[in-house]
UniProtKB/TrEMBL annotation:
<protein>
    <submittedName>
        <fullName>ADP-ribose pyrophosphatase YjhB (NUDIX family)</fullName>
    </submittedName>
</protein>
<dbReference type="GO" id="GO:0003824">
    <property type="term" value="F:catalytic activity"/>
</dbReference>
<dbReference type="InterPro" id="IPR000086">
    <property type="entry name" value="NUDIX_hydrolase_dom"/>
</dbReference>
<dbReference type="Pfam" id="PF00293">
    <property type="entry name" value="NUDIX"/>
</dbReference>
<dbReference type="InterPro" id="IPR015797">
    <property type="entry name" value="NUDIX_hydrolase-like_dom_sf"/>
</dbReference>
<feature type="domain" description="Nudix hydrolase">
    <location>
        <begin position="50"/>
        <end position="192"/>
    </location>
</feature>
Length: 196
């Protein structure tokens, strides 16, 4: 399949604009990504700086009470599964692939909310520390996030090359990782908080 970087930029621009309108996110929140799109940067490539597209999966159990997080080896913190976009994937397929690769879970499915809205639940641009051993300066990840459902009883087999471990947590753990995404999940009733 032939991949067109300009068409990908236009697609990301459309997704970004629709997302910002739907969730009332100010335009300046994604200033770096918008500038890179306007400048014609190859945002699909992990070798593009100052930033590039990544995707991630907010993995929830069927009831929406628990979320599956990975302990990221390089960043030394609990995060949602995710990683670099690989052309010519669809953004949703990229998020699902990353979730499977990092957790080893099978039978994952995109939440039906995405089919109804054709939107990600969150888009977050954040700075990643430099990794001189990989020739990577400090840069931005423009992370496009999707909700993925999983059976909590399914066996975890995390990729130990990048992940120290994977474990289920109460959805409240997302408050420290992605507060805006947690708010969106709450507003769309995609999660249920545990009783005190």
């Amino acid at each position: 399949m032939c991949f067109d970087p300009a068409a990908f930029r236009q697609h990301v621009q459309t997704v970004l604009d629709r997302y910002a309108e739907h969730f009332a996110v100010p335009v300046d929140v994604h200033e770096v990504l918008r500038r890179q799109i306007a400048e014609g940067s190859d945002i699909h490539s992990r070798r593009t700086f100052p930033g590039h597209v990544t995707t991630s999966a907010i993995v929830l159990d069927r009831a929406g009470r628990r979320t599956l997080l990975i302990s990221h080896r390089a960043l030394a913190r609990w995060l949602q599964p995710g990683g670099h976009y690989e052309a010519p994937e669809e953004l949703t397929d990229s998020a699902l692939r990353e979730a499977v690769e990092e957790t080893g879970l099978q039978g994952l499915s995109l939440d039906s909310w995405h089919a109804e809205t054709n939107l990600p639940i969150d888009i977050d641009s954040h700075v990643i520390p430099a990794r001189p051993e990989r020739g990577e300066p400090e840069h931005w990840h423009h992370d496009i996030r999707y909700v993925v459902r999983a059976d909590e009883s399914a066996g975890l087999r995390p990729d130990l090359a990048e992940v120290e471990k994977a474990a289920w947590h109460d959805v409240s753990a997302l408050a420290a990782i992605m507060p805006r995404a947690l708010r969106h999940l709450d507003e769309r009733r995609l999660i249920r908080h545990s009783s005190p």
